[in-house]
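Researcher: Here's the sequence for the chain we discussed earlier.
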Amino acid sequence: MVLPTRQRQRALERGEGRIVVTVDRDQCLLIYPLPDWEQIERKLMSLPSLNERARRLQRLMVGHATEIELDAQGRLLLPPELREFAALQRHAMLIGQGNRLELWDEARWNAQRDFWLKSEETASDLSAELDALSL
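Model: Thanks. This is the structure I predict for it:
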């Protein structure tokens, strides 16, 4: 996979070309510049270890975290187990999410996006934070 120029530049500036790829509960991959991942990893590992949900999140995200170095063309080689987890086939979608990127199998992304859009149409019970958000 090749990172687009903008994201490649951020990875080069923030992490000297080193990124971390890990799994997400939505069955996509999360891509962080190394320094940003290190902050997240510290937060994850500071969660209470006796909390079952916290341990599960630590096992998933920290346990699958893989440091990858971009080559000169901004390409990254994903390990087979990460590709398999996200069911990445020939076509993928790279979605920017602030300090991270999400990498989805294109078919899975389209299905999930359509599901979320339909769910939003019927959602009437927004949290106070979302209800107060002005876009």
